[in-house]
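User: I'm preparing a small set of examples for a lab meeting where we compare how different chains pack in three dimensions. I only have the primary sequence for this one, and I'd like the structure in token form so I can line it up with the others. Please keep the answer compact; I'll paste it straight into my notes.
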Amino acid sequence: MNAIARQEPFDLNDPALRARAVAAARGDAPFDMLITGGRLLDTVTGLIREADVGLVGALIASVHARASRIDAVEIIDATDGILTPGLIDTHMHVESSMVTPAEYASAVLPRGVTTVVWDPHEFGNVHGLDGVRWAIEAARALPLRMILLAPSCVPSAPGLELAGADFDAAVVTEMLRSPAVGGVAEVMNMRGVINGDPRMSAIVNSGLASGKLVCGHARGLTGADLNAFMAAGVTSDHELTSGADLSAKLSAGLTIELRGSHDHLLQEFVEVLNGLGHLPPTITLCTDDVFPDELYQSGGLDDVARRLVRYGMKPEWALRAATFNAAERLKRSDLGLVASGRRADLVLFEDLTEFRARLVISDGRVVARNGSMEATVQPLDTAPLIKSVKLPLLTDNDFRIPAKGKRARVATIDRPRFTQWGEAETYIRDGFVVPPVGSAMIAVAHRHGRAGGTPRNGFLSGWGEWRGAFCTTVSHDSHNLTVFGGNAADMALAANAVITAGGGMAVAKDGQIEAILPLPLSGLVTDASLKDTASAFADIRKAMGKIVDWKPPYRVFKACFGATLACNAGPHQTDRGVADVVTGKVLEDPVLEIF
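Assistant: Understood. Below is the structure token output for the 595-residue chain.
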């Protein structure tokens, strides 16, 4: 992979730039930009004080007493505003928002997010190295700083699923050579690391050898397993499941990427942190996955900070986690603090409750004002991402399990998210297994062209009664075509609508398509605007409410997208069958016994 043009953070060490900043700081030369009349949040002390800030190029040259300087090419009035460093999202996936990186940048920059750490493993799972290369190129010209990570688990569970590519240690090492790549992305194959699997050990070791970050996905790990995972070299986690889990992982020494995508846990996390009486320096914030309607309506990392404050966290803590702590985690001493010599990534907030950004500055340039972009956002040609769904149209019988006999004992996948094995007895009619009473069907078809595309079918228990079907090619993390439903006819209808669209999502009920969201780029994103994508995704949500009754916090719409995540403990449906990473077992079909 070729190096990108911008070599951060070393760009700030240009002698001419530093000399100009020193002269301006002394008062012997004017600032390029002077921000006056506001208050400054010190993310080290947590104190808010009156101060003016002078910029020279991309550098903060001076933080000084209010109204003590007026010499500047441009003066910005910050009266009644609070100046903070730009927000840093320490773990996210652009693809989850279903829009292009350019559209994503246009959504979050006006809200004060100036840096994101992007794991493009969705593009990697579909397109391999070409997908990661495309992500690097897409990020290069954007005013939003995107620090990319090398996808570590393509696929997430080798042998249990088949993605569009296979990244071994040699591929990861190649990605890490790029200055655009800041480390190894979330290591999801936890069991492989803990058991010393040669493939995963080599991938983690490639990250350690690079001297870059090795990021984690430590869902459910405790005791010896957590120690083994960390001893291998993994240093962070965002997969928290409870307040006790947060406490244990803080005590263990992990950097925490406190994510906003599981809102039902945030209040519990705030209570744990408030109980400590201080904010640990290892607490950072991340969005992980933000759906398009959520991004359009509420924002990105600013929304995470807003909700944490709403749940009782001090605003100063939320902002420290999202700035200084994040910069320390990323080993980026140029970010996260409004101080002389640091990078001029700044946000002028109206307040510290709603976090409305009046002004956003990145690299010393105004990029957004009053919620609107001012900087140019250059999109990258998306032609390399099309035609990623390599499947023929499917039939009703592709979503049935053939069997001879009268009755059958079948394996079931019980409970959304925290799955476990179950069994049920059912009957056989017209040569096919009838789904057990109270169950739903799930089918996964390999869609990348590396194997046959015949769907593998399974039974879900605890997912409610389905009155139709839902198909999606957004299906973590191999992103194979995944279909949920209560009858084969609607499942085939929804699947064929998505295949014809080149990827995306569709809801079918009573032989009709209720809603469809085409995602023709990688089967993950679209060239459409965020506004239009958000509207179409909201229509999908609404249609889903007609075909299944949700039961939060676990039986929710979002659970559909992680139902195939085979690296997590418990059984999961994949394109190979019903797979369990703990036992290594794969059932090609769920029929255990026929009577």
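A couple of notes for your slides: The first helix runs from residue 15 to 26. Residues 1-5 have pLDDT under 50 and may be disordered.

User: Perfect, thanks.
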